[in-house]
Amino acid sequence: MPRLFLTALCSFLVTGLLASLAPAGAQTPPQQAPKSLVIGFDGMDHGLTDRFMAEGLLPNLSRLAEQGHFGRLESSNPAQSPVSWAVFNTGSNPGKTGVGGFVSRYFLRDGQGNRMGNPLPQPMLGFADSLPADELVPIALALDNPQGFTAACGGAALLLVFVLLKVLGAKALLALVLGLVAGAGGWYAGLQYTAGLPAQGKLPYEVNPMQGTNFWSHLDEQGVRLMGIQVASTFPPDEEGPNTQLLSGLGVKDISGSPGSWFIYTDDPWAWEDDTNAGGKIKKVYFDLDDETRAAAELVGPKDWIAEQRLKQDIETLKAAQTAPSNTEQAARAIEQQLGEANSAYSKWKKNRSTVVPFDMIADRAGKTVSVRVQDSEVVIPEGGWSDFLPVMFRFNERFAAHGLVRFHVIRCDDDEVRVFVPPINIDPSHPPEWLPISAPPEFASEIRDGIGRSYETLGWACMTNPLKDNADTHFTPQGFLDDIVSTMEGREAILDWAFDRSGDWDVYYQVFSTTDRIGHMLYRESDPDHPAYDAAYAETKVSAWGREFRLGDSLREVYQEADRIVGGIMSRMDAGDLGPDPMLLVVADHGFTSFRRGVNLNNLLYELGYLKTKQDKPLAEFSGRAADLLSYVDWERTQAYSMGLGKIFINLAGREPKGIVTAAQYDELIASMRADLLAVTDGPGGPKVFTSVARRDVLFDGPWWKEGAGQRRMAGRMKDVQHDGFADLFVGYEPYFRVSWSNTMGGLDKAAIVDNTNHWSGGHVSVDPVHVPGVFFSNRKYTDDSPAGLIDVGPTLLARYGIDLAETDVDGRALPFENLTQ
Questions:
Q1: pLDDT attached to residue 8
Q2: What are phi and psi of 647, to 5 degrees?
Q3: Distance from the CA of 23 to the CA of which of 384, 409, 504, 651 falls in 20 to 30 A?
Q4: Does residue 236 have a cis peptide bond before it, meaning omega lies within 30 degrees of 0?
């Protein structure tokens, strides 16, 4: 009764509040606004596309090229998806977007804001932060003044019941008595409600690194309606205008708030519980002695931040009580004991900080199937098969829960082993947590789910690349990888069809497909006989996807044909008039691809060239394990430069780096010397060049973010003051077939400066000079000259199409010379 009453009371108050805060209606779009479609295929390489078209494999894209235009689309520098899509979204260079790569570096800071310690790797797909919870809790008073809120609930209940009974003719004494009972119930319900709120008044939240103004924000102001699907570099989506509907793409976290946490559950007696190299965890399961077919396990969810805040608040309260001057000796001892217990409870929480959901596996080893039971779902999965998305809920308390979508893949089920793979648990679009929004407006994600009639993948880094990268530990197969690719594409196409069926709701449609990129990364070597890990027999392995069987070595060709099929379907809808008269179609890619045969470690090279010194002048070979990672081996008092991230070099600059030695007066001369030395590097005596370019940041970029300093980042509709560490001093552009090595990314070392890449992750573009990896650019409009087109130009072209003066914006790109652009 108290909980039902409080719910009704809160609903009444919140309804009134939301009505008073409801935004003004969307502007009417410009009269007869023309339709525009922008379809992105991440990583669709210009050279491969040109070759496949010449071989007659891409008939729809060939027809589109004949109707209008096909050419190279210059990528950003560096050619990395977060950088590239941010440039695409804003029409501005990375110095204005604030995104300089997948990985940057940052420093811990002391109380005065001074940098300290060694540089640390900083993933650039989102920064962990927090928001005042009163912005996302319906009644802020419950957080700001819990005692007052509780009293208000009791008083409101008393008054409401008393008045209602009097209106119904009850005697005053009876009305008062029943009102007091209701008031006590309201007070208790209010107490229970406030007890479930964050003790420190904060909700975890992500800060999107991308800054600048997206092209659709300019369109929105003019009443032009945009629908964007899987739009990269927009997580979490900021407050968009009334004419924008947006589902975030690359950057969206899993339900735990990580870029993608995945698990292998196995009863292999020789397996160890351990982390894999690419972010996974191996979990042991044990089948019952009494029932050898059944094993219990747990899905791992988000950190229990409600418990964390409560425990931290308890510790802070007890520490404050310790200093009270009125404490008696006995009280002081009691507080000290309570503080010890609180610290112990917090230490225990840190060891088991994640919420979990139990599930059971029932193995039929003879039939090679595993039955999985989790919460309200049960599904039977054959060996090699996948489950559908199943809903799971990780509950913190009565007020807060995280709703996710989980899939199970049975890698093996026989007498020797049961091995089950659980990919990252997606955010459920029907119930995104308040602290993990994935769309703008927030209800748009759920609207899509209802519209297509099925759950869909929301994870930004869709497709299971890392389990295949770690296949020595996971035993995850290329067939399993392709099955997941197909599932992802089917979900994306279902959304595309749904959006086209309601084309009256938008003027500009923008969607990104990621599967071309993922297959390029993971299966490139199977089509490259010169790759050091190429295995001719393995490349001949038969796999199936999209309803047909083919060689594993033809996977790249097959996914490009699927992209062609999707474009063909769009063109058919256009020809039928479903998308209005003469819509403009643009097909774009953020970058292209090359085979990743050799990995180059810049820290090894800087050591060999004399710019990086080691502790006690030890040879690099003497450093291993942790000592060879995170720049732990560097003698900072003698080191001039170091590398962290993907193709980045930082100068150990005095006044900026905590142990900097290079003065401002020495900076330019050192840069010139390093550039000359690096550009002369070859892969062995007389071998091919390794680097195409070594570019200075102050030449590449313009804007407030490339240089370290103070700034403001958007977060949930507000501006947040930040201190940022800027971009690398040098951006290194590799020749084709070379790429930054795996160890280099986190500031580590390799056995040699240049090593073979034997990983399944065998196609690359990050750190490759952008001139070698252009993306595709198609349009159904003719191009009027031979001028080059870049990612940076597409957004401005759309602005010009809708009559927006580029001079009144902050874009760096230009409007491309298309015929009939504004028609």
A1: 42
A2: 80, 35
A3: 504
A4: yes
